[in-house]
Design brief:
By secondary structure, the chain is of the alpha/beta class. The chain contains ten helices and ten strands.
């Protein structure tokens, strides 16, 4: 494990528009589902505050739900609409800011990853660009109408505006892993023949929030090649396709791309050492966040199979960061199990890092 003196830019500040992050460590968004009735309570605020107190440069919250009745399949996932939920989020912001941190909500709609009859609105069918089940490709609903698309886009915009109003430092749109925005990107789930379908460029039309927040409010977009139903899926099979996919998203106002992979150290395309975040930065010139089993010796899917993960050497991470392959580093399970991960790494207290155990998912530590 590297001594603290060798960590290079991991603990350098980073300027993101008008924001100044104290370091390059980002808390990755991780679904926790500890908000009864969709309202984040003081325990949720304390959970995020602990990470801010321990030196995380930027916190991205768990996925929060836009105002659409088919957005979720779990009544304990936090809403980002309604007076009570927004009041709860305003308290989260206040706690994080008081601890010296920065925080952005991740805005989310799961689309047809939601199953028929799921609560809290069992009468609502799942929605998606073509109404196709994410895993099977079977039809579960009619394609989204123009009216429903307009309604969902407006809900994203309202959530973005509310985030700015209650004091968040920016927003992240969840456009990865096969959820609703990503379903518009992915050919398997978007078979539309109107202006929202067609080639990879035309399929990017759906994501937009810039007008709701003005030019200076940071917008992050989480993207991935892989889907929760298909870990080998590819939106882009080569750099040329990826460049075409990214160009309209940059034009739409994305400030930072959060590039989700299962293992950050793996090259994205043959013939280059660059990972996904490295390629996105190279092709867009925009800052990127890398993520994927950072600080752990077992990739993230092990947690869903009941597996543990020990702490891992971060030499490869810091080498890539030193090479400016990407700009920021999102840490997931290592921060979930150990609120002080960033402070311990910064201070060289590697022997104090906690290994990940599945029991950590059962509480807000």
């Amino acid at each position: 494990m590297q001594p603290a003196s060798k960590l290079g830019p991991l603990f350098e500040s980073f300027k993101l528009g008008t924001l100044k992050l104290k370091n390059r460590v980002v808390m990755a968004p991780m679904t926790r589902a500890f908000s009864p009735g969709g309202v984040p309570d003081p325990d949720v605020a304390a959970y995020y505050r602990r990470r801010a107190e321990n030196g995380v440069g930027l916190i991205i919250t768990e996925g929060t739900l836009i105002n659409d009745p088919a957005a979720t399949n779990n009544p304990n996932i936090p809403n980002f609409h309604g007076d009570e939920a927004l009041k709860g989020w305003a308290n989260v912001v206040a706690e994080v800011h008081e601890a010296g941190g920065l925080i952005m909500p991740q805005l989310w709609h799961i689309g047809t990853d939601r199953k028929v009859g799921a609560v809290p609105n069992p009468e609502e069918l799942p929605i998606g660009p073509s109404g196709l089940d994410l895993a099977t490709g079977e039809k579960v609903n009619e394609p989204m109408s123009q009216e429903r698309i307009d309604s969902v886009v407006a809900a994203y915009a309202q959530a973005a505006a509310d985030a700015k109003r209650i004091g968040f430092d920016g927003i992240e749109l969840h456009g990865a892993h096969g959820y609703l925005i990503d379903q518009f990107y992915w050919e398997k789930t978007n078979q539309r023949t109107d202006s929202y379908g067609g080639d990879l460029v035309k399929r990017t039309r759906f994501a937009a929030c810039r007008r709701a927040v003005g030019p200076d409010f940071p917008i992050l977009l989480r993207i991935s090649q892989w889907k929760s139903s298909d870990y080998e899926a590819k939106l882009a099979t080569n750099p040329d396709e990826l460049a075409k996919f990214l160009a309209p998203l940059v034009e739409a106002g994305v400030d930072v791309f959060h590039c989700s992979t299962r293992r950050f150290w793996e090259p994205e395309f043959a013939g280059s050492h660059l990972n996904f975040a490295g390629w996105v930065k190279k092709l867009t010139g925009k800052p990127t966040i890398t993520v994927g089993s950072v600080g752990l010796d077992n990739e993230f899917l092990s947690s869903f199979r009941g597996g543990n993960a020990g702490t891992a050497n971060i030499d490869t991470l810091t080498d890539k960061l030193n090479d400016r392959e990407f700009d920021l580093v999102a840490v997931g399970r290592a921060l979930l199990v150990d609120p002080a991960w960033a402070a311990k790494v910064r201070d060289g207290r590697f022997d104090e890092l906690k290994p990940f155990i599945p029991e950590a998912l059962r509480s807000l530590s």
